[in-house]
From TrEMBL:
SMART domains noted in UniProt: HTH_GNTR (SM00345)
Domain HTH gntR-type stretches: 1-69
CDD domains attached to this UniProt entry: AAT_like, WHTH_GntR
A molecular function (GO) term: DNA-binding transcription factor activity
Residues passing through the membrane, by range: none
Classification via SUPFAM superfamilies: PLP-dependent transferases (SSF53383), Winged helix' DNA-binding domain (SSF46785)
UniProt keyword terms in alphabetical order: Aminotransferase, DNA-binding, Pyridoxal phosphate, Transcription, Transcription regulation, Transferase
Source organism per UniProt: Paraburkholderia phytofirmans (strain DSM 17436 / LMG 22146 / PsJN) (Burkholderia phytofirmans)
Family according to the record: In the C-terminal section; belongs to the class-I pyridoxal-phosphate-dependent aminotransferase family.
Official protein name in the record: Transcriptional regulator, GntR family with aminotransferase domain
Amino acid sequence: MKRFEMLANTMADEIRSGSRPVGSRMPSLRHLTTQHGVSQSTVFRAYYLLEEWGLIRARERSGYYVAPGAALEHKPAPQPPAALESAKVEISDLVFSVLEAAKHPNVVPFGSAFPSPQLFPLQRLARSLGHSSRLISPWSTVVDLPPGNEPLRRQISLRYMGMGIAQPMEQLVVTNGALEALNLCLMAVTRPGDVVAIESPGFYAALQAIERLDLRAVEIPVDPVSGIDLQALSDALDKHPIRACWFMTNYQNPTGAAMSQEKKKALVELLAERDVPLIEDDVYGELHHAATYPLPAIAFDTKGLVMHCSSFSKTLAPGYRIGWVAAGRFAEKVQRLKLMTTLSASIPAQAAIADYLQHGGYDKHLRKLRGAFRNQLASMDTALRRYMPEDSHWTLPSGGYFLWLRLPSHVDAMQLHRLALENGISIAPGPIFSARHEFRNHIRLNFGHPWSDNTESAVQTLASLLEQASR
Ligand SMILES: Cc1ncc(COP(=O)(O)O)c(C=O)c1O
């Protein structure tokens, strides 16, 4: 990339994120030449490019101003055109090295994928485990084979009903966590070499599954507030023989984006027109910070094309590894694949969760958990405002426990990850969420742990490492 293009991209980022509001005056030529150590012609060329992109407008004898059409607050940085190319994925080494580093219990877990275990009702769950194990029939090893424990599927089906979604127990398959559900769905609707649409940035396990099943990925840009770009998806569907989409509709990992009901409906309709299955990853849906559950996309499905995957890993019992999929017209195929791959989910764990859902006060626990995340997000936000430089940017998610932080463009997130670890802090660097290792100046921060002085000073330390982590 040439210098003027780099400069234009940095400023486009600032405009799209809202750091430079519509109507505000752009910096003078002199200011930019000294600030960036570039020539006047580089600045001119950058400004011409921004004008071409519709982001700024010249006013006679007054300079450049942010154009009204640029009111795309929180838009991610422009994706390179290659984002709509399908590509083979190689992400695992990078992900494994980051995950391994974050395992140590003494490390401040900003990079962790889980909330604090202190927030889960582990003792009450243990009672359900003890109680239900004593009642387990010797025949359950056979009876509870896929699709899975019947009382558990009934409880899950009731929860769908509570949202106004009719989801018959027969279409629910219990799995080892949502991750297995997602993988089985992908296997059910693709063959090696097929093209799958995924999010960018997106959950690294989708990239790993694509890598493992020898598929090809088309990355669809995600807006950190409103989710995937439907126009880009529509263009990608025109251009590629996309066999399936794997998207998060609520509190996307890593950005925290949540799609509106209208957008979910439009997404389901777009895919239905082309008969493309949607693998909907909704593991954070129950963790809405506001009062009501945001309907998932499956609520708008009339063709059985949406496979809604979720689990209890983020809300109740991470170690039990109980998830499920409401698999629509693919339920039987998914069930067979489940039998062929891992046979069954743990039978005592299924029974324990069924008992807890029936008698343990799950909704009360969820209300408490959501309240804790809301407060912890407020503390994280305050700390970031206090310590991070002005040209960093984040949006406040309306659910879940991840915050996507865009750092000044000179910061290299991989370097920051190494330096942070040396200081006892884990972070999830942006490149692990992209097939092309993009988002080099982004990090995902976990706020799912009770706030403390230690966490506060970890944010301060992170901020102090930014200069050292320069590219
Ligand atoms: C977006 C997303 N989907 C799925 C999973 C996996 O969920 P489970 O632990 O239930 O397999 C995770 C866990 O990190 C996740 O972040």
